[in-house]
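2024-03-11 09:14:02 DEBUG pipeline.ingest accepted 1 chain
2024-03-11 09:14:02 DEBUG pipeline.ingest length=230
2024-03-11 09:14:03 DEBUG pipeline.predict start
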Amino acid sequence: MTQETYGPPPLAPGEPHLACVLLLDTSGSMSGSPIASLNQALQRFKEQVSMDEMAQKRVDIAIIEFNDTARLIQDFTPIRNMQPITLQATGSTSMGAGINMAIDMVKGRNRYYNSIGTPVFKPWIFMITDGGPTDSIDEAARRIQEEESKGTHGKLKFFALGVEGYSKDALFRLTNRVMELRDKDFSSIFDWMGKSMVAISVSRVGEEAPLPLLPENAKKADPNRDVSTW
């Protein structure tokens, strides 16, 4: 990993920090209202989380898109410094490449935190997709399972949000933390994620912060699966 990949130094390096990657499907099927809603929700997410003084200091966000390839849109930055972005929908669904890039980034960011003495919360990867992968997800699935099984509580939390047209089988190959959105309005799920970030930022490192209830237009894709580690 290069220094560039680590992003800028964290605000308040003596405070615990949470690295979160937003991993976003921008394939052609997301064109129109879905991609417009996603762009609006990203800005709303920044504004909501930035209102919390503790989250401002402790939450660092990076954004990766995947379509024909995986591409870093924004390197890790304090939540309040997130820049406005306008995602465009095009191409296929290189999900495996996107996941592997996201895992590399959160591992690299946590190594950076450790190198400067910054305590770390368990990093998050939050993926949104409306399709099935057009590349292999075998290595991505192996790596997620490996990271989530490290230590008592694991070294990573990977969430997958499926919207109309997504592959449930593919997402459950990756994680049990699979959610479904009933429509393509992303504002409420980003509100949920923002509240989750705030809850984690005020918790203690090593604790499992309780997450808020999912919004009305979202649900766990299979409530019969073990979701005790959400």
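2024-03-11 09:14:41 DEBUG pipeline.report The longest strand covers residues 70-78.
2024-03-11 09:14:41 DEBUG pipeline.predict end
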